[in-house]
Amino acid sequence: MSSVLLCYNFIVSNNRGSAFWGLLLFLFSILAGAAGYAAGVSAGTAGAVTPVKKVLLITVNGIINPVASEYIGGAVKQAADLKAEALIIELDTPGGLDSSMRSIIREILKSPAPVVVYVAPSGSRAASAGVFITLAAHIAAMAPGTNIGAAHPVQIGEQMDKVMSEKVTNDAAAFIKTLATQRGRNARWAEDAVRKSVSITETEALKLRVIDLIAKDVATLLSDLDGRKVATATGEHVLNTAGAEVVEREMSLRNKILDLISNPNVAYILMLLGFYGLFFELTNPGAIFPGVMGGICLVLGFYALQTLPVNYAGLMLIIMGIVFFVLELKIISHGLLTVGGIMALIFGSLMLFESPLPFFKLSLAVIIPVVLITALLFVFTARLAYKAFKRRPLTGADGLIGLEGTASTDITPQGGTVRVHGELWSAWSDALVPAGSAVVVEALQGLKLKVRRALP
What is the pTM assigned to this prediction? Predict the structure, then answer.
């Protein structure tokens, strides 16, 4: 405005000759002032825009194992870095390893961002370790048609006596009561879930104060969470999730591969493939490919075994079965070693993973085909080896014995010449063999053949 007034005074106080230039300056000042005002308004409006809130969403569908622990731990850290309003864990699990479960709960308890465990979609469950994780969350929610419970601890890998079983159960009951009390949930039911393996639906869980709410989908969940107060590791936090942007975090390719090979059936197949590859590399030195792939499969198989309840007696039986198959190639046992190998492989496979939990057991649909294929493979190899052993030598001195030829000259005890296998050889015979007669090689002495006349 001051620039406009100055221009007006300039026009009035000066003569008409300069009035034209003064008028142009006056108009330019008006345009500049309008542009500055518009820019100021725009800047003020932009400064008043509220940043969009974000909610991080991950999906855990399967066994709680070291891979799931790493995945959830990474999501907790990412939610803190994004300053997300909440981390939503969409959960569907039959349970898993106690060590992995406790690692996940430690990450949740120290998370600066609120963690919401959402048992979904319909038909999902939070059983065993999933109950502990759900009760540890700042907010526990379930979708319609889901259930939660059956958290009785099961020892994996070895049998427990009565005293040890009681100790493990008491420890789990105390842990879950602590989690429920910390989150203001039903500690009595939580203890029953451990001691009595009780399980309830989502409506019963809401009625018994096991969970905080029921939501049919993530959008409904965000709407219901808005305005709720939760106490995180950094203090009280009021959720502002209405209209928040949902950022989905998928499991990395590395974790997907590790999760796949942690399946007992996949680990079992990888281990056997590793043994096969090394066996064929040792029996056919220089093939390279079987040895390389066998070594890789064996390492992956043993990695998976460390996360599974391995019974070492079963593992030894499997190795013994493969040794029996290998010995069948070296020793003529008339099939006894093959039968022993099949029996050892079957019993070892059945005993390999010792756990009452079905997701830690080998499937018969995998064991039977693998054993049959293994037996057929080694029987076929043994048959080829036996045929090669019985086959008459084709090269060297032994390869000449028994070959037929033709006497090129008369063959006497003093000598002569024969044509055998397209080659001319010096030869001798105990009896006279006329030229042109058919002869059979009996022996090789130095570079001279001993022959006899072939019978008609």
Answer: 0.69
